[in-house]
Amino acid sequence: QEFFVIPTELGSSIEYEDVPFKWMTGNYATIQSKVPPMFMVFMPTFVSGCYVDRLESAKAFFAEPSHSVAGTEKELAKVSDAVRDCAGLREREGAAVASYLKGLNGSGGEPASPAAGGAPGRGIR
């Protein structure tokens, strides 16, 4: 488990969110030699996020028999659903969120007005 702490934490920063997937795909054989086989099924979690292009790369990567252990397809399907949900949410609500956040700019963390997204005193902290 400790083996994945650094790449997972690194990926939690927006500017580095693609690094864990690139690390995993570039070092898959080494990871496979160090991690018990039962944990290799969870490698698709490195695809997590909102990026369909990374998901498509992952599908091609895990389609290779040497990159797929029993259960990988099922785990990839779960991750695929989450990525597509996130991407769809960004596409559908992204403009509204950006507008709301732009309204917060310079207002001390409070919405521009109650009609702009919340009651007074209920800003994002």
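Above is the first protein from milestone M3; the second protein from the same milestone is given next.
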Amino acid sequence: MRQPVFDQVVPGVGLVAAVLRCAGFGQQRWVLDPPDRAVAEAVDGFGPELVAVAVERRDVDGPAAERPEAAIAGFVAQVGVGVYGAGEDALARDLDGVPHSILYDNDRCLVSKILADGTRQRATLFSALQSHYLFHDRYGRPGKGNDKGKVEGIVGYARRNFMVPVPRFASWDAFNADLEAQCRNRQNEILRGHKETIGERLQRDLAAMKPLPGAPFEACAQASGQVSSQSLVRYETNDYSVPVAYGHQNVWVRGYVDQVVIGCRGDVIARHPRCYAREDVVFDPIHYLPLIERKINALDQAAPLAAWDLPEEFQTLRRLMEAHMLKMGRREYVQVLRLLETFGLDDLHGAVKEALRLRATGFDAVKHILLCRIEKRPPKLDLASYPYLPRADVGTTSAASYMTLMTEATG
């Protein structure tokens, strides 16, 4: 998996650590000039091969003299201007300031064209990012990595100190959280030749930053599309599902680093985790439940539900419903699933378990228990709680009573 690594440090007269609240994007070095000049600068660059090197190799070259005092590393799935925007927005808000200028690589997601006189023509979304924060954007020479100073040394330091031996985590979020914690811990260290911690020195240098704008930057790419007959919307090369009620309608799409948001007119109708594969389909099974309720025989063959991993109690409830009510029981089971359109899975799961315990296997009973759990009141499914209802007294039928039927038949 080739994913870009993110690194950043904020030096002052020496090097001072900066910390990003969430996972960053791209390898990045923010540099503060001496405080008397009150100028903040930043250096930015991407290296999509860095994670592969960090994961596959343990011997990373780099002179010790170029080690930064601190760095923060994180991972994203793909380079893009949204990655730059989200990372810089998160960093600026964590530091409560904006650098005066930033030095960038000539990435295509940032620079759409280099003119004959060397002027860079910004990409649309990057131009919006620069206009929002009002920093001066500068660019390195193409193919000249030394324009960015010790960026490679920063990357090497993070690999050697934070990722050796090769770390193993259940998710990228857990990995990024661990990397961030290590970077934050380093702020408490006092380096040779200094009497203050890295964090204490950082506080003085932050005074050189420009103030934040009043609103955060929407770091997303925007597009428009139309819902297909299969209730899918294509963004880039992947298809994302929307509720079937919006079939064949025009929609807008916002592609963030971690999610894709789809809306129709002024309403948000779907949210999906961002998929960085190609020609993939991302389903939300809840979007298709109204259609499956009408065409109940498609319950077992519906592709959006094929990989839906529900708790075991849901399958038990379905078996009991179908045993008691046959086809109608299958439809009521889908109605139970449709409660997820309004309520969370944990709440519905608890209601299903309580319904199974009470042997109240019906949609109305599950919905009643669910509402009682949310309102924090006991469910009233016992008829003893309703004394005003008429009581039905069903007597035991004697086998001799059927003899009258035979007598009438012979007569």
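Note on the second protein: DSSP finds eleven helices and 17 strands in the chain.
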